[in-house]
Amino acid sequence: MGESPDAVTVVEIFDAITNPRVARTRLHPLSCIVMLCLCAVICGANTVMAIERYGHNKIDFLKQWISFSHGIASHDTNARVLVKLNPMVLESCFAQWMS
Fold this sequence. Notes:
Blueprint (H helix, E strand, L loop, with lengths): L9 H5 L15 H13 L5 H10 L1 H4 L12 H10 L2 H12 L1
Helix pairs in contact: 2-3, 3-5
């Protein structure tokens, strides 16, 4: 099944999220963290440690969509970023992706 000409990728949808971090502390791009968390949670991860483990186990799969040039973010980094994200924006992006 081919994509329609106006198809938008999951990465493009979630790129609408504003990065809440200070520029100097951005080793891992927000798109990498969001994509990692999204895939991991869909696959059953329910803690930031499980998300990090998933990332290390599935790095080759994840690299099909995003370059993880700095590797997988630590569970501490994922937790700090997730806590700062606007849940309403995340919900809106997820709903757009699902539609």
